[in-house]
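Quick one:
INPUT:
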């Protein structure tokens, strides 16, 4: 069998291999008008308006990490996918795959964290399922979620809506979650403690919608990080994106850990950050709206949308050069979310 005939860890990284698998198998066989946008949540028309629907599966290792656990992460990740389509999250489902031998106390702690996160987000877990597999047939605990949210009238957000001249913003520092998971998994014992940024973003998203009529795109840069997510936006919109390296916030501890480990924070997962693409005259309002939110204190304008070449992302570096930021290739950190 060749490389293309088996599933690799690369296929779960959210980068180029993930996109190729999605197109080769899922989009080809399951093609329909709702699915074709390939955003993090689908928008469907119902008699009373529009709903956003999202699904996600969480396999993070370790189950517990500084700043959260797999239960709270599952709620935050699903809520954020809905929020990025402009929806107000309302309902979740949760499916659990449990490995024989998992302590019930561990499961209870995870479910309690999920319940607390759901209450804080104002959503209800309205359906669920549990399956148990034998020892060695899973790794402790996996969670699958689905989320449903209501999209207010007149709200239209999507990766295909970026336009030349738009400003590109992020709500905070890049790479916090990815480096935190790696440090916890490998027991790195870094001098500066790291904490995941896992957090719900629906309130920030709704505030941006209200403050910025020219808001075109919201995305949360999870697997594949900032660079891969911007590549997705550039490709979907048929535009280019130019960034300024010095403007991109990265915590000193994250930058130091990445330098030590040979990683790039622009390709690491975030679980509590937003990318916003807005018309240039709304950039300042978007920036101040983000900074008014607890998770957006480090928000920054990091670049702008250009006419082309379509699908290209590049960064003007701090030393005066230009660096092409391609989609993530390979899997630097498996099981990050």
């Amino acid at each position: 069998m060749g490389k293309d005939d088996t599933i690799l860890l690369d296929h779960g990284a959210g980068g180029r291999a993930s996109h190729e698998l999605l197109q080769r198998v899922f989009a080809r066989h399951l093609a329909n008008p709702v699915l074709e946008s390939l955003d993090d949540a689908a928008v469907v028309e119902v008699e009373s308006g529009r709903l956003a629907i999202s699904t996600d599966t969480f396999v993070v290792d370790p189950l517990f990490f500084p700043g959260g656990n797999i239960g709270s992460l599952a709620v935050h990740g699903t809520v954020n996918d809905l929020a990025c389509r402009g929806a107000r999250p309302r309902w979740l489902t949760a499916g659990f795959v449990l490995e024989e031998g998992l302590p019930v106390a561990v499961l209870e702690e995870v479910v309690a964290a999920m319940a607390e996160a759901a209450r804080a987000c104002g959503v209800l877990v309205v359906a669920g399922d549990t399956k148990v597999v034998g020892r060695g047939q899973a790794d402790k605990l996996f969670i699958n979620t689905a989320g449903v949210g209501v999209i207010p009238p007149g709200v239209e957000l999507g990766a295909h809506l970026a336009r030349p001249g738009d400003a590109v913003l992020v709500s905070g520092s890049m790479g916090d979650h990815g480096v935190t998971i790696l440090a916890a998994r490998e027991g790195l014992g870094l001098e500066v403690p790291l904490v995941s940024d896992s957090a719900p973003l629906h309130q920030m998203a709704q505030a941006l919608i209200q403050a910025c009529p020219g808001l075109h795109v919201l995305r949360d840069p999870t697997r594949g990080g900032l660079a891969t997510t911007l590549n997705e936006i550039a490709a979907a919109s048929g535009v280019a994106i130019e960034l300024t390296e010095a403007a991109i916030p990265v915590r000193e501890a994250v930058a130091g850990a990445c330098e030590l480990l040979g990683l790039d924070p622009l390709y690491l997962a975030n679980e509590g950050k937003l990318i916003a693409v807005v018309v240039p005259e709304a950039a300042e309002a978007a920036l101040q709206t983000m900074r008014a939110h607890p998770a957006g204190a480090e928000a920054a304008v990091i670049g702008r949308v250009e006419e082309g070449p379509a699908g290209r992302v590049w960064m003007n570096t701090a030393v005066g050069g230009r660096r092409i930021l391609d989609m993530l290739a390979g899997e630097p950190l498996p099981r990050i979310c």
